[in-house]
TrEMBL record:
<dbReference type="InterPro" id="IPR016171">
    <property type="entry name" value="Vanillyl_alc_oxidase_C-sub2"/>
</dbReference>
<dbReference type="Pfam" id="PF02913">
    <property type="entry name" value="FAD-oxidase_C"/>
</dbReference>
<feature type="domain" description="FAD-binding PCMH-type">
    <location>
        <begin position="36"/>
        <end position="215"/>
    </location>
</feature>
<keyword id="KW-0285">Flavoprotein</keyword>
<dbReference type="InterPro" id="IPR051264">
    <property type="entry name" value="FAD-oxidored/transferase_4"/>
</dbReference>
<protein>
    <submittedName>
        <fullName>FAD-binding oxidoreductase</fullName>
    </submittedName>
</protein>
<keyword id="KW-0274">FAD</keyword>
<comment type="similarity">
    <text>Belongs to the FAD-binding oxidoreductase/transferase type 4 family.</text>
</comment>
<dbReference type="InterPro" id="IPR016164">
    <property type="entry name" value="FAD-linked_Oxase-like_C"/>
</dbReference>
<dbReference type="InterPro" id="IPR004113">
    <property type="entry name" value="FAD-bd_oxidored_4_C"/>
</dbReference>
<dbReference type="Pfam" id="PF01565">
    <property type="entry name" value="FAD_binding_4"/>
</dbReference>
<dbReference type="InterPro" id="IPR016166">
    <property type="entry name" value="FAD-bd_PCMH"/>
</dbReference>
<dbReference type="InterPro" id="IPR036318">
    <property type="entry name" value="FAD-bd_PCMH-like_sf"/>
</dbReference>
<dbReference type="InterPro" id="IPR006094">
    <property type="entry name" value="Oxid_FAD_bind_N"/>
</dbReference>
<dbReference type="InterPro" id="IPR016169">
    <property type="entry name" value="FAD-bd_PCMH_sub2"/>
</dbReference>
<dbReference type="InterPro" id="IPR016167">
    <property type="entry name" value="FAD-bd_PCMH_sub1"/>
</dbReference>
<keyword id="KW-0560">Oxidoreductase</keyword>
Amino acid sequence: MSPQALADLSSRLPDLRLLTEPGDLEHYGRDWTRRWTPAPLAIALPASIEEVQGIVRWANDHKVAIVPSGGRTGLSGGAVAANGELVLSLARMNRVLGFDAVDRTLTVQPGIALEAVHTAAREHGLIYPVDFAARGSCSIGGNIATNAGGIRVIRYGNTREWIAGLKMVAGNGELLDLNRGLIKNSSGYDLRQLMIGSEGTLGIMVEATLRLTDPPPTSQVMLLALPDMEALMQVFALFRAKLSLQAFEFFTDVALKHVLAHGAQRAIDGDYPYYVVTEFDAADERAQEAALAVFEQGMEQEWIADGVMAQSEAQAAALWRLREGITESLAPHKPYKNDISVRIGAVPAFLHEIQALLAREYPQMEVVWFGHIGDGNLHINVLKPTVLADTDFIAQCEHVTKLLAETLQRHGGSISAEHGIGLVKRAYLESTRSAAEIALMRGVKAVFDPNGILNPGKLFV
């Protein structure tokens, strides 16, 4: 790309902030995968919809690829710019634009952090219920681009359930105003839902209208220690039948070891193979007594080996840290991550098969399991041995991921539950989507992005 092309961009948009320093190129050119060497052309930080449109039109004229960028907390390489692309960072478009008390919606720019959305909703006595550990650094635009789920899907569903409207800049620079906050709208295809989960390959999000809801009743948090894998689904079925669950998260003893070493505090004495952090409605003394009765029933059935119920907000936060601190605690070990899902009813059979597969294929590696058992989403983290070169480690993991994808296909599962496909999983898309589906997806991409400038190389091989 010639210097004249960037000069033309600056000439067209004189107020646009452009970064070209090596440190900026490295910072904005990668996400949490750290597997590709960032090599973007430059970093554009627009402050308005008009500047985003101008960038897209310039990119079409000069045949420059664009990588949309939010908080870059992704784990699938969806925000990586390694081939001279222009990174279009939405970090400056990070404001709350409006609140509608009647519709109970919050309109925001895409660069706003999820935690800031939570704060803004609480200021109006409401909540935006999608939540996960990266809330302080991930952006709402990235959440929408991957249809993020998180820890409360069992109660509230995924991101797409909470998007009332979107404004997107398509690949030709045209601004699309999708759904406009309507609750009922049967006037043709719902392009808003098509954009959610599209990983920046169909358009660049410039505004989102979010649905808000009432805060949940007073809740209680409990940590459970389980004796074996079979108990996971038995305890989940018991708690779901008897309590109003907000979350039901599991992790293994190996995960606990790492998060304790990272500074979390042990809450249950002794060592057990599986643990669950669950949160449920407990608005009054009767509800708390019911929860204790359910816990005792699980103990009597020998599905639960031990447990503790939080006695304060601080203790509840400490129990949640045992689950939410896992990803951060594993980061120094350069984990290879699988984010997979199956139907809840298929979880037991799948777990048995996949546990045998991982034990056979990773005899010398530490494998860390955790996830959202209540919605069929499992996270598998393989930790790199220090003696193994990065390239050899990734090659071995990709061999196993191919086997994992084949297993998922037999069980009707997905190779990506909530992280997206990006660069990491594009070779395995056919395990989740049929050839006919992929062909239609490519056709949709060609309509919205006729010159193929939006996040090329992501999603499709």
